[in-house]
Amino acid sequence: MRTRALGRALTPLFAASVLTALVPAATASAADPTECVRYTSGNSEHLAVGERLDSGARLVPTPGRPELVMQADGNLVIYAVGNIGRPDLPLWYSGTYGNWGAYALMQEDGNFVVYKKDGGPGKGGALWASGTYGTRTDRTPRASFVDWGELAVTGRTEANPSWRTATINQNAKICSDAAPDRIIPFWYQGSWAESASVWLVLQQDNNLVMYRKRDGQAIWNSGTYGASGAHNGSVYLKMERTGDLNVREFGPNFTVRWHSGTAGSDDAYALLQDDGNFVVYKKDGGPGKGGALWASGTYNKI
Question: Is residue 15 part of a domain?
Answer without folding.
Answer: no
